[in-house]
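Sample intake sheet
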Amino acid sequence: MPRPRTTTPSGPVPDGPVPSGPTPDGPVPPAAVPFGQFIVKAHGRCNLACRYCYLYAGPDRTWRTRPAAASPAVLDRTAARIAEHAAGHGLRALALVLHGGEPLLAGAGRLAAFARLVRERAGPDRTVTVTAQTNGTLLTEDRAALLARHGIRVGISLDGGRAAHNTLRTDHAGRPSWSAATRGARLLAARHPGAYAGILTVVDPRTDPVELYESLLELRPPALDLLLPHGNWTSPPRGLPPDRVAGADRPAPPGGGATPYGDWLVAVFDRWWGAGRRETRIRLFEECVALLLGLPGATESLGLDPVNAIVVETDGAIEQVDSLKSAYDTAAATGLDVFRHSFDDALRHPGVAARQSGTGALAARCLACPLLTICGGGHYAHRYRAGHGFRNPSVYCADLDRLIRHIATRLSEAAHATAPEAAHAAGPETGHAATPKAASGARSEAARVAAPKAVSGAGPEAAHATAPEAARPAAHPAPPKAAP
């Protein structure tokens, strides 16, 4: 039976990368949020060699000593631990993400069998939503049909809908992957639309944003995840001007300096918002709108809601989310594994506690920001700075400020329309600000954020300004394996 490597319990905490270890014999912290998303590495290798991959080409090296695929023993024990956690916390809905590497290297049949096992162990009273996140190159009609029959939705990672967008996504021989990946996406759209979860795309400010977005629409994704590359203050993303990366203690002030990623996202938002109908869902935008209207968030990238995702590696090691591996080697490690530890033990880990502490993990600059409840400090991994840990503003601070204020302005404009006009003007069939009460709530919060000198607090009607199902997609592709 394969066993995880023995490691010292580690992982990021707000003040630095060297925390105390977990306390498996102590109580679960009262404020801890149970895990609801279980990311299982069915296969730990990939058939592509994307030149920007933070997982295989970044600072973390833990994958090198792990088995290529999860063994039956690891999968069996993982299913038991998921069921144990769900029963212990009375969870009625769970999300299982089959990840990698490239999960289809494990075989579609094995993925289907594991999904069935988790559902059986969880019991008939619990709903288990299963998604496989793939690069799409190994999708065939037989594999797609098998996954669909077993209720497994498929998300595809793709940099754009054109060959020119995917020049860095090559196989190990340097051959382009775009043709096979887009064939997989078109197969899902045409033959198995109910199993098509959507497309995950990493933002590259060197591309034409509208052209890239429209090229993805040709693949008919029900949802898009637009993700900022996993850069940080020590390893900044390409394209940020030097004055933006001089140090985490003095990021560019809101409204000042170049914001290439914010500008790119604003251009796509305006194209999406002004379409007059919902061409697809874009989680980042819908989450921002929801937060501006006082609704809870459901993404790592924005808001203050605690992260409730946990990872099981191919050797059974329990780890934090992969994005942390872009910071430093072993950043996601906990020292726990499914053979000796429960997921409640992971809730006690200081790194997990930091991810669930809301404002407790934020820098003073973030706490004083009027966009605090919307931005939430940005993605945790993007705050890292060597020697200073994670208690910093996001390296994308100015870009997020640019995007949030722009969306707030557009929302405020829509909310100021008359009630009959608001339903049409407020966006692509999401129904935002579709009633006088909704318009009032949207005006109060969106105008606050859009104003040059915003004040904190949302209007009491903001939480009722739109329905949760209209504000965000029903299901999303999983977090990315790689980012430029």
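Comment: The first helix runs from residue 54 to 57. The chain has 16 helices and ten strands.
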